[in-house]
Amino acid sequence: MRTRPARLGLAIVALLWCSTRLVYAVPFSPGTLQGADGALTLNPGSNYVEPYFATKALIVAEDGGLDIRKAALSWIGWALPRQRPDGLFRRFCRTHSTGDEWRDCAAADADDSMLALWMQLLYRMAPASGLPAEWQRSLTLASRQLEKLHNRRLGVYHISRRNHVALLMDNIEVYAALKDVARAQLRLNDPAAAATNARATQLATAIQRIFWDRRTGRFRPSMQKTRPAFYPDVVAQVYPWLADVKGPGQDPRQAWEQWKQSFGAGWIARRYDSHAWGLIALAAAKLGDKKSAACWTSQSDSLRGSGTWNVLEEAVWQSLRARIAQPKLLDPEACAAMAGQS
User: Fold this and answer.
1) Which strands make up the sheet holding 48-49, listed edge to edge?
2) Does residue 96 have a pLDDT over 80?
3) Beta strands in the chain (DSSP E)
4) Distance (Å, whole) CA 188 – CA 192
């Protein structure tokens, strides 16, 4: 049974969350990324649905202050009947761009992240009257499957039941989702809120224990040894900051400045990776570095609609474009500072 301090603590968290979330009237506009049937494709006008990217994009867009309700409800309506009886989601392909028939064509990339993000999105879109019965059934399936991926000894989540590796980025996303779900449950007067919040807190502790490297003062991207690369090693460092997680004794703003000095110019120029990695721009904005966020946003204009552009990058771009003033986007000093020229 929840104690009064626990209820009060959760209430304060929920109040702070509601008071600090960005709220704009600008709608998220998927354009050719979303079909009339509600499917959110990975790339503009493509015939391929990666449920993780679609769901993550909607959450990122709303976190950035965009109104996602129309796009999200359409996506939920498309994805819900395609959820497997075990709660998992698969990737889908369409043979003809003019048709509306989708076929299961591949396993998901990461079950742990997808399950957590799906739960998070359903709770965010739930009406004040509570979860619709069909959504509740879907949530129950997803929650049960997510728990099967939980390594109780280590406290972290595995990628899937076939792949027993735990990744930093996945576990950060599960943590952020659980915190968000707990707030939503509190809003809906769900008695499970305290338990969900406790799961998130336990996971945050496990993330530091499993992934923090005291010798290097940075996070390991995986519980297994990996060959150093921009992705996942370097990109993984910004994920905790997006979820208000930091390493022991770490100052995220200072750590970001060090990250930017080492990798900022190459990230903007896409020297390390063909993908734009807008989530890094979100981290910059969150940590108060509006110039770097503005630089990425302006530099990404020409990438929209290209083969490397995807629905997640579009969500980041639209959310930053909505909250960064035009003069800042056109400020030449924004990218000059990123390149170390000022």
Assistant:
1) 48-49, 90-94, 102-107
2) no
3) 48-49, 90-94, 102-107, 212-213, 218-219
4) 10
Q: What is the pLDDT of residues 107-164, one digit of tens each?
A: 988 999 999 999 999 999 999 999 999 999 999 999 999 999 999 999 999 999 999 9
CB atoms within 10 A of CB 78: 21
Average pLDDT over residues 228-234: 94
Q: Which of 24-28, 40-44, 307-311 has the lowest mean pLDDT?
A: 24-28
The answer to whether 106 and 90 are in contact (CB under 8 A) is yes
Instruction: Report d(CA 217, CA 123) in Å as an integer.
Output: 35
Q: What is the mean pLDDT of the chain?
A: 91
Which residues are 67's β-sheet partners? 27
> DSSP 3-state helix, strand, coil percentages of the chain (rounded to 5)?
55, 5, 35
Would you say 292 and 264 are in contact if contact means Cβ atoms under 8 Å apart? yes
How much is the average pLDDT of 207-234? Answer: 94
Query: What is the distance between the alpha carbons of residues 40 and 80, in angstroms, rounded to a whole number?
Result: 13
Question: Mind giving me the DSSP string for 325-342?
Answer: -HHHHT-HHHHHHHTT--
Report how far residue 160's alpha carbon sits from residue 109's, in angstroms, rounded to the nearest whole number: 9
Helix axes 311-323, 51-63, angle to 10 degrees: 10
